[in-house]
Amino acid sequence: MLVPRNLSPTVPDALCVPPVIRFERRTRAALFCLFLVLNVRAEARLQRTVLATQLHEPIALDVASNGSVYFAERRGAVKVYHPDSGETSTVGQLPVFTGPEDGILGLALDPGFTTNGWLFLFHSTPGVLENRVSRFTLTNNTLDSASQKILLRVPTLIPKPNHSGGCLGFDAAGNLYASTGDYTYADKSDGFAPLDRRPGHELNDSERTAANTADFRGKILRIHPKPDGGYVIPPGNLFPPGTPRTLPEIYVMGCRNPFRFCVDPQSGWLWWGDVGPDALGPDPTRGPAGFDEFNVARSAGNFGWPYFSADNRPYQAYDFEVRTNGPAFDPLHPVNDSPNNTGLRDLPPAQPAFLWYSPGPSSRWPEVGSGARSAMAGPVYHFDPALVSTRKLPVEFDGAVFLFDWERGWIKAGWIDPSGRLQTLKPIMDGAKFKRPICLKLGPNGALYLIEWGSNWSDNLDAALVRLEAVAPTP
User: Fold this and answer.
1) pLDDT tens-digit series, residues 19-78
2) What is the mean pLDDT of residues 203-227?
3) pLDDT tens per residue across span 153-197
4) How far apart are CA 224 and CA 175, in angstroms?
5) Predicted structure pTM score
6) 184 near 313, Cβ under 8 Å?
7) Which CATH superfamily is domain 13-470 in?
8) Could you give the CA distance from residue 447 to residue 393 in angstroms, rounded to a whole number?
9) 398: which DSSP letter?
């Protein structure tokens, strides 16, 4: 079980001045000055630069090695911001189904993008009840729709999709990750786990997806794309190829809506935010309050949904017909007995989150605030002293993972100890509130690139592509 992290440090432990009991007055003064320098709040050294406006539901981005920022709008447009001219142009328009939570949801550039022009999209298709992960080729900054190679097909819902996930990203080994939501309606679960096993209520049972080892949904998938448009299964996924009643593409299972994730290129750890259910408080007959989670996977695993939440707090089996509860689920031995399950009955042990928070104020992590919530994870920053860039983030952020919340409008830097416990959580810019941040990536210049969705649920006039960068030194 994770323990609460220490709230006291304002910089990573490696930067804190160790206690000194006896030293000369001059040495004491020098050390005190050094302490002040190292404890300057890093958020005061960043600035927000708007790169593009007048965008229509921008949702996902990636940054090429030359600094060009490719981004997608949910309704099908793929665009590029040109850093030399400061202008934005459209490279393609994809026909997509734009139901409540579908469209283009994710975008990732191939590691060899500068030479092969390959761009991957997580997208819907009109008239087809599936989301797809497809590879397209850009030629002269124009998306060739005929070049589409479909790698993954994820079934969606009738009559309307929800919890679609949709993030894409590569690791240092060239493996492609894709997140999928549980595609389950939660409107009949009173804010608790949707475990409705009654005939005719299949869409209210997340055991058929997130807890199903033979279903792509409620997962983070990992594949290795091939040049011909297919893929192979990299070693280390949750189920070896050929395991009965499993899919070898599954890296992480037990997710509700892992909308944004990142892979640390140095450690290979996978970080993501999982958007949780809506119960305002715990119920002794049903389970815990609704929590959003931040998770990290050092290796493949099961992260519990719909049986557990937060630090493996269990839900209880529930009979939706007679409205009576059964026993609590066991995180060491979760069992999927749903008639809607087509996978394994006995599941891998559940892994806890490293940070979780409900709609109300958190006594453990007051920094997260209160209210509506939507947890998402951005990149991990590694300061490169050899990188010549006036925009790169300062060394104070070294080793931090950037966590953000779409609803609450904050972006925070978090430091994790080797055992996975959250040690420090702090805002990256003091007092800043972002307009529903929805995608966050590091550029080759060491700056953060951000999409702000805008103030409202949809059709915003204030959506923007933004760069968060070091404050230029005073001449």
Assistant:
1) 222 333 333 334 333 333 344 444 448 999 999 999 999 999 999 999 999 999 999 999
2) 97
3) 999 977 676 899 999 999 999 999 999 999 999 888 999 999 999
4) 4
5) 0.90
6) no
7) TolB, C-terminal domain (2.120.10.30)
8) 6
9) T
Q: Is 206:306 a contact under the CB 8 Å cutoff?
A: yes
Q: Are 389 and 449 in contact (CB under 8 A)?
A: no
- Cα–Cα distance for residue pair 154/218, rounded to 1 Å: 10
* Alpha carbons 14 and 16: distance in angstroms, whole number: 6
Which SS3 state, helix, strand or coil, does residue 29 take?
helix
Chain centroid to CA 192: 22
> Tokens representing 385?
């002293």
Domain residue ranges of the chain, discontinuous segments joined by +: 13-470
The beta strands (E) that lie in 183-230 are given as: 219-225
Residues constituting the chain: 475
Determine contact, residues 117/89, Cβ cutoff 8 Å. no
Q: How far is CA 94 from the centre of its chain?
A: 24
Q: Which two tokens stand for residue 83?
A: 């850093």
Comparing C-alpha atoms, which of 67, 70, 72, 65 is closest to residue 80?
A: 70
Instruction: Note the pLDDT tens digit of each residue in 402-460.
Output: 999 999 999 999 999 888 889 999 999 988 999 999 999 999 999 999 999 999 988 89
For residue 227 the two structure tokens come to 């040049």
